[in-house]
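In this section we walk through a basic example: taking a raw amino acid sequence and producing a predicted 3D structure, encoded as C-alpha cells. The instruction is simple. Fold the sequence below.
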Amino acid sequence: MKQNWVRIFSSNQLIQVKIAENILKQNGIASHIINTSDSAIPALGEVELYTLPENAKRASELLKEHSIE
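The resulting C-alpha cell sequence is shown next.
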C-alpha cells in the first residue's frame, strides 16, 4: 500500500470492514485493509480500510448509502 492512501473506515469487527471493502470493489474503487488487531485478543485494536485520496469522497458516500459509517 502506498503511503498517501487515506483511511475511510475502521472497526473492531473484521466482517464490517470486509463488507465495506466489497461495496467499494463492486463500484470499482480500489481499497486496502490493514488489521491492527492483537492476534491474542482480537477485540483489541482496529481493522482499517484505506483508499486513494482521489477515491475517498466517493468511497465515503457509498459507505453512507449502505449505512456503513
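Looking at the output, two observations stand out. The mean pLDDT is 90. The beta strands are 6-11, 31-35, 47-51. In the next section we compare this with other chains.
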